[in-house]
Design brief:
With 351 residues, the chain is mostly helical. It is built from 16 helices and no strands.
Length: 351
């Protein structure tokens, strides 16, 4: 089938990208439109002007950068869909979020989570959890100490926290997390979770004992702190949360979480030259409650999974969502104080 002749609008956008030393073909631009990542060409220009509007060019620049690096659109694409906030983009987001949440099961060929409270169902979920974890190699990073060492080279001392996880990908935490994913809190009690934390944080016994006391007090009062977590009902509960959210709330949650992630990544990139940024970021409680456990996202599918989990938490925990909004304001202030791209939060992540 012969390709259609490139439109004047497509060629104008290609030229505009070239002026910023970025490459894209008219075919790529057309594909971005087909995937709802760029609006119709009629919306690109100011009335009566041949110049591409800044927010359209900004979007195209992000897409061209991702394409140049050989990656899929990832959470950048999610951010743009969320910014569109149309029924079609909300449907795309919902489908992508659910696929990302289910990806660990699909990789392990776990087609369906065994249900029920019987011993047989419990053992089947344990077996499925072992398949999901498998023999995969987990990153052995101590992010907190790595950042502290980098700051020390610049003559700064970052605040220490007894509650910061040295390695969020520790095998013990991964095993516990997968069991929660498959069976929720019904399959993993608070004591088993604390035992996993003890293995991941062997030098933080005081904070773990404090958590153990808090859980005991909660049990005496007839409550379960884990029941308020997005993990409480496991993957089925997370999927239901995404399915039940209306289009507006879903797009808002994804937009906020991806914007926060973009801002954090951008500030972390500046921190090597301005380590004072790390001092402010790490002193806030959201550094421990969000940044190190889901804000600093790896590339590829694991990063998408982190954003998907953030989205579920944003939808289910209003207090956490408000705290993330507050932390975003802090990051905005840092963006203004240590500018890299004037007036653009997250290095241009405004859509």
């Amino acid at each position: 089938m012969a390709r259609t002749k490139p439109t004047a609008a497509h060629l104008a956008l290609v030229r505009a990208l070239r002026e910023h030393e970025l490459k894209a073909t008219p075919t790529q631009v057309e594909r971005w439109q087909q995937n709802d990542l760029l609006p119709q060409s009629s919306a690109w220009f100011e009335p009566g002007s041949p110049i591409i509007q800044p927010h359209i060019l900004n979007r195209a620049m992000h897409l061209a950068i991702e394409a140049r690096q050989g990656r899929g659109m990832g959470w950048i694409g999610w951010h743009l869909w969320a910014a569109n906030a149309t029924p079609d983009s909300a449907h795309r987001l919902r489908t992508a979020l659910i696929a990302s949440l289910k990806r660990p099961l699909a990789q392990a060929d776990v087609d369906k989570i065994p249900t029920g409270n019987s011993d047989r169902a419990f053992k089947a979920r344990r077996a499925a959890a072992r398949r999901v974890v498998g023999k995969r190699r987990l990153p052995q990073r101590d992010l907190d100490e790595t950042l502290r060492a980098q700051a020390a080279e610049a003559g700064l001392e970052l605040p220490r926290s007894t509650s910061t996880l040295p390695n969020v990908s520790h095998r013990a935490l991964t095993d516990a997390g997968v069991r929660l994913l498959l069976g929720g809190v019904a399959d993993l009690g608070s004591e088993e979770l604390l035992e996993a934390l003890e293995k991941a944080m062997p030098n933080h016994t005081e904070i773990i004992e404090q958590m153990r006391d808090e859980y005991r007090q909660a049990e005496l009062m007839g409550t379960d702190p884990l029941a308020r977590s997005p993990w409480a009902r496991g993957l089925p509960g997370m999927v239901r949360t995404v399915e039940a959210a209306n289009d507006r709330d879903l797009c808002h949650a994804v937009y906020t979480c991806t914007l926060a992630t973009g801002a954090l990544h951008d500030l972390m990139g500046r921190a090597s030259a301005k380590p004072e940024i790390l001092t402010v970021l790490t002193a806030d409680v959201m550094w421990r409650q969000w940044a190190v456990v889901g804000g600093i996202t790896p590339k590829g599918a694991p990063g998408l999974a982190a954003v998907a989990l953030n989205t579920v938490q944003y939808l289910t925990e209003p207090e956490w969502a408000a705290e993330l909004g507050r932390y975003m304001f802090l990051m905005h202030n840092l963006d203004v104080a240590y500018p890299a791209h004037p007036d653009i939060l997250g290095g241009g992540m405004e859509a």
